[in-house]
Amino acid sequence: MRGNLLFEQDQNWEVALKSFKSARAVYEELGKYGDLENQVLCRERVEELEPSIRYCLHKIGESNLQTSELLRIGEMEGPALDLFRAKLEAVMSEARSQQAASMTEFHWLGHRFPISNAKTRVSILKAQELEKDIHGPKADSLPADKRLATFDKIFAAYNEARSCIRNDLASAGNSESMKDDLSGLDKAIGAVLGQRTIERNQLLVSIAISKLNKVRDDKNEKVTKPEELVRLYDLLLQNAADLSDLVSSGRDRKPEELAFAEECELKSLVFRAERCFYLAKSYSLAGKRTEAYALYCKVRFLADTALKELQNLKTADQAVIKELQTLQKESRSNSCIEHALAIMEEEQAPEKLSQKISTISLTGKDKKLEKFLMDNLDVYESAVDASVKSMSRIERFPPSFQAAARSPIVLDLAYNLIECPSLENRTKKDKKSFLGRLWR
């Protein structure tokens, strides 16, 4: 407790170090006695004290800890490390501020944009440090959830930098040169954000593909459907189009920008081929063989086009080329499978139709007879018997159709064909006077 107090007060690091070492020695000695649960608890306490001891050594100057090592210590789990993380964040902010003093420009596709705002420099430095975790040599060993969390932190840092740039742009006044520099810096940061967004969505695609053909061991585990991958590729296509529009905007475009725009178009072509492949899979699962066959043929055409363009580039990514070659082979094999299945289903269609027609019953005798209480009033059957699977019903509802008597319509039609005799000779005729005949 004394060591934690001095650690929080940022003073007497030597005394704090001595207290932490004494506590570690006590826990190590206690861990030698007692049951297994007590030994595990003492070992956990020793591991929680280790980061604090190393940090005290760093503050005294007896340890040459690098920034990456401090960050690795901060990622350790434990209930007693909250205070250490707060101290570590303060140290990292101070280190970024010192590094930001030497950062005067931001380089992007042959452009150099000056950075005058200290907050903007600190945010960009923070994002660049986080990018080392996802682009470094140990990036593949990181779990997917941690990589996604790192991407979220990168987005937050770059968005904070953009907000500072736009605030400076609003207060720039009539200085055209300053406005041009700030607008260019905002465009560069937006392009970097677009690239990281594509990388994050590609990570989501790789996670979804790993779950696509996975056998579900746990009932609660969600299995990916091809439709979900189609939606992810829709997002990637939109991201690539937005990034291409952003880079293509403006005047006096440099060769690096033109090359980057072509790269975005090529990425869009690759994403279209992969999206079409999983769209064909979804149609195949729905039993639509014709549509699936046509889409697989479209995948082969798009993959061939993308491969030809990639092979013309000097700096082509070999991983993307291998991925397209695999996609080309799978689409060809799947198109053959869909063609064969369509022919088999067409050949079996008459047989299946005849089987279905042969099972049609006009009388309904094949249906299971249900017992109703109104038909069995003299028979006792338990309504709560466990062996009775269906619930008891009192009467048929809706009732079945029955023939109902009504007046015949033939007589009504025959009435129109009956010829009645004339009755004029039996009717009385009115006698009128001479004046009545005149006024007639």
From TrEMBL:
Keywords: Cytoplasm, Nucleus, Ribonucleoprotein, RNA-binding, Signal recognition particle. The keyword Cytoplasm applies. It is found in: Cytoplasm; Nucleus, Nucleolus. InterPro entries: SRP68, SRP68_N_sf. Belongs to the SRP68 family. This is Signal recognition particle subunit SRP68. The lineage of its organism: Eukaryota, Viridiplantae, Streptophyta, Embryophyta, Tracheophyta.
